[in-house]
Amino acid sequence: MASGLLGLALLAATLTGCTAAAAPAPETTALSQPERVADIDGAPQDAAIAATCAAVATTDTLLHNARTDLDLGTITGEQHTALLDSVIVTYRSLQVVPASQRGLRAEIDAVASYLASATPTDSLAPFDPDSGEFRALFEPIRLACEENGSELYVFATTGG
């Protein structure tokens, strides 16, 4: 299970363009053993859901930056389409993670199914991330991540 979660984390880091070398692991002692993460209510965080949320945060980051960069004129329509295509690939990739290591299976499958059948936009983007249907399918994922203590964050490439 740990190798699957590590693979999902590596996928998320790869898709966001992370190139920093990993810091050496601190020496582990009985006192420094990591504790199970708990949410505000004290319920244990589900690691499979947390891993899925990390990957979904990557797609949300891609969507945010693609839209912003297109609006600013720093990327072309073709580059925007390529970024949206990478979101589709990420959701397809999440579908093949072993079920025991992937949380929110039904929700991810619903988004992946929508993306596979979406009608391209007038600008030939593979789907419209601002459409009501996409947002409605994404909302249960956002809420489940929040409930799990794995809130989604966007890492913007522009702005303050």
UniProtKB/TrEMBL annotation:
Keywords for the protein's UniProt record, in alphabetical order: Signal
Signal sequence segment: 1-22
Domain of life, source organism: Bacteria
Protein name: Lipoprotein
Source species of the chain: Microterricola pindariensis
